[in-house]
Amino acid sequence: MRYLVTGAAGFIGSQTVDRLLADGHEVIGVDSYITGKQEFLASANASPRFTLVLGDLFDFTTVFEACADVDAVFHLAANTDVRHGTEYPRRDLDQNVIVTWNILEAIRRRGIKTILFASTASVYGDTAQLPASEAAPLPGQTSLHNASKVAAEALITAYAHGYGLRAILFRFASIVGERCSHGHIFNFCRQLYQHPDRLTVLGDGDVRRTYLDVGDAVDAMLLALEKSTTAAEIFNVASLTPCRLTESIAWIADEMKLQPAIEYMGPGPLWLGSYPALVLDCTKLQQLGWQPQLGPEAAVRRSVRYLAANPWLLEGRS
Amino acid sequence: MRYLVTGAAGFIGSQTVDRLLADGHEVIGVDSYITGKQEFLASANASPRFTLVLGDLFDFTTVFEACADVDAVFHLAANTDVRHGTEYPRRDLDQNVIVTWNILEAIRRRGIKTILFASTASVYGDTAQLPASEAAPLPGQTSLHNASKVAAEALITAYAHGYGLRAILFRFASIVGERCSHGHIFNFCRQLYQHPDRLTVLGDGDVRRTYLDVGDAVDAMLLALEKSTTAAEIFNVASLTPCRLTESIAWIADEMKLQPAIEYMGPGPLWLGSYPALVLDCTKLQQLGWQPQLGPEAAVRRSVRYLAANPWLLEGRS
Predict the structure, then answer these.
(1) Residue A276: cis peptide before it, omega within 30 degrees of 0
(2) What is the pLDDT of residue B317?
(3) What is the spatial distance between Cα B182 and Cα B188, in angstroms, rounded to a whole number?
(4) Of A213, A276, B27, B304, which sits with the fewest C-beta atoms within 10 Å of its C-beta?
(5) Which of B155, B156, B166, B170 should one mutate to test binding to chain A, selecting the residue with the greatest count of A CBs within 10 A?
(6) Which helix (H) or strand (E) holds B304?
(7) Is CATH 3.40.50.300 the classification given to domain A181-209+241-278+294-315?
(8) Quick check: B138 and A135 CB within 8 A?
(9) Is the ipTM of this complex over 0.90?
């Protein structure tokens, strides 16, 4: 098969590219290298079955050209800065909504039948129904990033029904692992790289998270691609065993053989659009046969080891 | 107060303008006259407290200029063609999502604190929870129009939380009444105006609807504006007594003193994004003290009488 992967030089994108290539497929990757990293495509670039399109998905022609002769699209590109949306009021609309429309419209015009989309578990907000199933009501969104994901989901679903596409949407919880270059592990490792004796932590450390290794997330997408049959289907993707942020901090420090003094910034949301608990019901995915290979601790430790082996990532732009 | 009303020459928009003027306020109306009608602003144009901005809300500068010195915005403009979205894949994104962003961003930059927004009860889709409350889960959207409303709601809510606005969102059921110039009453009256002996009806007539007079809908907005206190609040707005489409057909025929032969086109959705039942729980609004003045029959009959008195509307573009 011939797949298009947007955000191909990103964290989940590059892992998806590598997996698809390893499975023998042809892959067209699109990335602008604005947040994506060339280094993540080192292995892919060595494959004759990989082609990189260096371009901006906001340009419809770029998207349309990249979609030539493609069988299915993994739309994984997005603005990844979930914390500072209010400083850039147009960015999430442009990069997450209008870009998604560009992808959908290119797919439609090209006669492509399948799109896979990376959404976020944060759309569940502070739902009282934990673990949240895919059918849970979504509260009003509090961040532009989460709102843009809700908007993109709605557009994709309507395109699927309106034009006979198959859409598979993944609400990812906190995905970690090799090449993870944002989020708390990255932030903490960078702090400890700069000052090994102390760590500043947003919040009180008490938040519940479901850290999942990126390999398990890619497994989930490939399994759903193979087995999901409805026009538009949403799958939660998360670790089956929640943990506290404090536990993750202990694993990170232990993996780095450090004993930093930890300063908690205090209670309250970490930022607008983050929530105290992000615990998902993944029964739908499990019913397809999905089972994570790594638990949260192993996934977190793998992230830390990767960053320790790749200090250039901690030194660069995040 | 000084209010901006978008879609000022539309059905709900012009009724809102007239009410605000009657209450002694200043009103800036924006309309492009693409679907809005000059005739609906005849009364408003006679008021020294009304100003019309003839322009396209897709142009940010138009929106920003119109927002000067405004206290609150009624954002009622939208693409009103809910049936043929798949023929115009970009239209709902442009007119309902990007335009809404333009409004929000102009509001933010102008320091305006309040936005009221006309959403649709169709976002509840084929929910099993009838009557649907505002907290009901939203299923995947099947039409681009409904998807664009979900997207706009999410954007508005995120702006409210991110920038300290007050947002009041109204999920309108089937609003009917004077100046209603789309929907089943308009369509049926036009058919009967052209051929009084026969009527063709999409579906099997069995759908359940909650027709509400536009005056009661405007009441709901003004009451919520006065009493709602949270950052972002959603209100269902619908008749408290559902009826069948067949009942409405009987009222229309009776009001016109006609006995047409009725041909039902058969079961199934009327169009993509329409659903067999649109029955809403309006408890939240009732708790503010809202009570509709007209039942569905009176509301439908009023629509018919208005169209009979204004045949130019049936003759023109719909």
Answers:
(1) no
(2) 54
(3) 10
(4) A276
(5) B155
(6) helix B296-309
(7) no
(8) no
(9) yes
